[in-house]
Amino acid sequence: MQNNRFSHARRIFLTISAALGLFLLAGCEVPIVNLTPSVIPENPSQIYTISARVNPQVPNLVPGSLLVRIIIDGQSFPMKKSDLGANIYEFDYQLPAGRSEIAYYYLVNYKFEHDSIVSSREEYSDVIHAKIIGRYVLSLEVNRGPVGARVSILGRGFTAQDTVTFDGTSARTVFESPNAISFFVPAVEPNRNYKVEIAGANGVSSVGTFRVDPTALAVSPTELSLKHGETQTLTFTLPTPAPTGGLLLDVTTDAPESVIMPEVVVPAGSSSATVNVTGGKPGSGSLFLKGFGSGEITVPVTVK
Description:
Blueprint: H1 2-26, E1 32-34, E2 39-41, E3 47-54, E4 67-72, E5 75-78, E6 80-81, E7 88-94, E8 101-114, E9 117-124, E10 128-133, E11 136-140, E12 144-146, E13 150-156, E14 163-166, E15 169-170, E16 172-177, E17 180-184, E18 192-200, E19 203-213, E20 218-220, E21 224-226, E22 231-237, E23 247-249, E24 251-253, E25 259-260, E26 264-266, E27 272-279, E28 283-290, E29 296-303
Parallel strand pairs: 2-10, 12-19, 21-29
Antiparallel strand pairs: 1-3, 3-7, 4-5, 4-8, 6-7, 8-9, 8-10, 11-13, 13-17, 14-15, 14-18, 16-17, 18-19, 20-22, 22-27, 23-26, 24-28, 25-27, 28-29
């Protein structure tokens, strides 16, 4: 009878001890926070720093037992402490040629002591993916301006096939170098914001938001009457000097065979531009300039 009581008490003690051990073990946590962005700009050396914050919340952690590793491409690499802050670990990864994506996870090993017994534990993060992008935008020169203003975008990975768009409307784009591209604000409705993007062979990249401001414009004369082969001047005048890069006046016509004229650009710092208009085939039509005044300026043209 006494042996049965002793065995029953022993079983209760072992059950409580096991439950307590599980409770203490569950309280041992090492939170792993990934600090690496999911999209990483490409760099010439093709070396990328992967970092994480590992903050042990383990009672009686054995000093020096914490080991942080990264598992990438099926290989395990130790991570070193970063100078950026406490509990931050990093690893410099050399991207193999032809790769544009990285998949990895973090593995943490440590030891803790309980009732003079040292135990080991291992924790790991979910699998994390990061994409290397060859084209990215660093800055938009300005975030507002009138129709026709030339604006620069700085970044990396631009190509001659890239086109800047305003809410999907293509803007005249000038490729300057892999690190710089410019565009002329298209003839869109003023007094509103537009989503600016770059579209090309490398996909679509967000640039930012651009506000198109209204501006007045006077045209003289207000209509043209020409003979075939005759030339007259047409002057466009702004109320203020054109901004840096000049102001492109995107003049269109519904009589392209009757009206012969060059592109109109008001030089930077100047408030007017004068161009020659030559009569082509006999006919009639108009010159149109959107985005100025009440929305569109019209100059009737007749060629006899």
